[in-house]
Amino acid sequence: MKEIEFLETERTIMRKLTKEDANDFYTLNLDAEILKFTGDKPFEDLQSAKDFLTNYDQYEKYGVGRLAVIDKKNSKFLGWCGLKFNKDKNEYDIGFRFHKMYWNKGLATETSKKCIDFGFNELKIEKIVGRAMKENIGSIKVLEKIGMVFKEKFDFEGQEGAIYELTKKIE
To answer: N-acetyltransferase domain spans which residues (predicted)?
Structure first.
């Protein structure tokens, strides 16, 4: 299986997350507004973020994973984006999370499109899903902008969520 190394968009470089990203990763997950619609909890401390990143095995197991999104101009960590494989559901999903100062700048759309393109064309994935809480209008707009279509509602820990999907076009 081809394993992801890095991807490039007009404004960003996306690369594998490493334990050196722990501080940025930890800070990103401290913001309650960023985590509001994710179901995730903040890391207890910086070491917890390092441990998570050290043990993150999506790249090795499945050739995909969440990627650090780095600004080409200043090398700043903007957030993350990428595909993740869920073995229990036998599906790939697209996910993204950015620091608030980078919201509404098209970065989630730009990086998600690149990740989906990689998944379809390099990894030969046939279908990718995206999940969002119904109230997370920003993420739903991104899923729609990248071509995903609403599939069904789902229960997300007592809240209503939406599943979107995109299937590779046969050429």
So the answer is: 12-171
Q: What is the CATH number of the domain that holds 18?
A: 3.40.630.30
Give the tokens for residue 142. Answer: 């991104």
Contact 6, 62 (CB under 8 A): no
3-state SS, residue 33: helix
Q: Is residue 102 part of a domain?
A: yes
DSSP state of 63: S
Domains: count for the chain: 1
For residue 33, what are the domain limits? Answer: 6-126
Note the pLDDT tens digit of each residue in 105-161: 999 999 999 999 999 999 999 999 999 999 899 999 999 999 999 999 998 878 899
Alpha carbon distance 168, 171 (integer Å): 9
Contacting residues for 51 by C-beta, under 8 A, at least 6 apart: none
pTM over 0.90: yes
Identify whether 45 is part of a domain: yes
Question: Is the residue at 57 inside a domain?
Answer: yes
